[in-house]
Write a structure and sequence with these properties.
The chain is an alpha+beta fold and 68 residues long. A three-stranded antiparallel β-sheet has the order 1-3-2, with helices on one face. The longest helix has 12 residues.
């Protein structure tokens, strides 16, 4: 039997929402093992002087707990 846990993380990128997602999952996977999926909860942009300067995402990340 597997048991999963869901955590929330936020990630930011100057390039795109997709890059923010990839960077967030990449960083989380360095300390959280067994990541199975992620759900984009919210998306935001930072605007400075009328221009989008960064893209932010809030992710719900699901991972399987170790059997120990």
């Amino acid at each position: 039997m597997s048991v999963a846990k869901v955590i929330e993380i936020s990630s930011e990128s100057p390039k795109s929402f997709e890059d923010a997602i990839v960077q967030g999952i990449t960083k989380a996977s360095k300390s959280v093992h067994g990541i199975k999926s992620a759900w984009v909860k919210e998306q935001h942009v930072v605007v400075e002087n009328g221009k989008v300067t960064s893209y932010r995402v809030d992710l719900k990340v699901t991972f399987v707990l170790d059997d120990k």
